Amino acid sequence: METHPFAAAPAGSPTLDSLPVEPLLTSEFDTDPGSVYERLRSTYGPVAPVGLMGVPVWLVLDYREVLEVLRNDSVWRRDVRHWRARAEGRLPRDWPLLAGYEVRQTMFFDDDEHRAARLTHHSAMRPFQDGHSPEGWELRAAVAKYADDLIGMLAAESGTSGFADLAAQYTRPLLLMVTTKLFGCPVGLGDEMVMDLWRMLDGGPDAGPATERALGAMIRLAAHRRSRPGEDLTSYMLLSDPSLSDEQLGRELFMNAVYLNDITGNMVCNTLLEVLRGNATVRRSVVTGQIGETVNRAALVNPPTANLCFRFAGRDVRLGNFWIRAGDIVSPSVAAAHRDLLAIGTSHLVDSAVSTRAHLAWGAGPHQCPSAARELAGMIVTTAVGRIFEHFARAELTLPPDQLPWRTGPVVRGLRLLPVRYELSPGAPVASRAGGSGAGLAAHAGARAAVGVGVGDDGVVAAVAPGASGRGGSGLLGALRRMMSGGRRGGG
User: Least C-beta-crowded within 10 Å: which of 59, 227, 241, 253?
Assistant: First the structure.
């Protein structure tokens, strides 16, 4: 990127509004977004003009340019009020992506306002980040228990072998239960809240009402916790900054709900998928006990957020082959940047335990997800993935990987479902059919979903009979270790 603090774009250089743009969200993008990114890159270079639901946007495709946009917040602003088209009233009044950006919270602050809000978040999250504090220990124990409870519910419904959707029957309810616990909700959150977050992020026709519903729920929670504080994130946010109004605190909880349920949930599912689809490199990191590294590898190949929050040019600046005008909207594409990173002669990154941290799933620069939140999300993901490995003796996809249904949109690319055929290990938790295996499960029973039963031949992770044991250990993790050492058995 080339900055010119006192220069304007040269006369005659094309503007975003003057360029022909092709719609980004097409049926081709739904099925194969990577090919769309590559075609745009070959046509325009590191930055491409695209149409996003009828609005022209600069899409940043190459890793170097994406990283510089994320790091240079003096040029690339987060506050939507910098967007020239919005300020001039040139946006469609019902543009569905605008609803989320009108919720003013930390993600959309700049400069001192942003730094102060980050300090509040870090202070409030610190007790839960520390595994040795009472709050941190209790949260970690709760995440593991919720995961075991949900696996026990699968066993109660289908027996020690059967079919399950690890997205709807495991990941979504798990994250809802964690959110209920962490936020101090007086009652369990419903699956409809997750759907509302999806509607907002995907820019559906009801994105505005969905945003209002989810935000309203968080504002009511803020008011409840102000009157009845507890050992929870909501109360600690108030303790860290008592000046927060119920509406301001509700906005911050809303942002955290998005990241905790949608983005963290995608990381769980994407990591499980990379193992289930037979990615040898990912399996190798699982075998060596590096589940955190497994998560990093999955985030590099399939980031949970495809395109990060918009930035707005603070001044005229050259990026890629174009001059970006002050007030132009820019969308940094993590998914495209990762493809670029793996295609420019750096494929050795996939085999390097340290360099996989080059992924941008958490963002980068001043607006990168705060360290306390990253560690908290990492704990949740590694626990969720690890409990599956511990309790499943066998798991295989019931659809070929290229036929899995994805939820695609301008922000995320997440699995709608992750259907598997499984066998539980001996000693795995089994809930009673009458009452579930732990308090709180009944509130999330609506998250269960029907699963297809077609079996794909190439999705087998391990074919180990229940009860198999040995030096490698039992469960899916032990099966993977035996398989990697040449001990895989055939099965069907």
Answer: 227
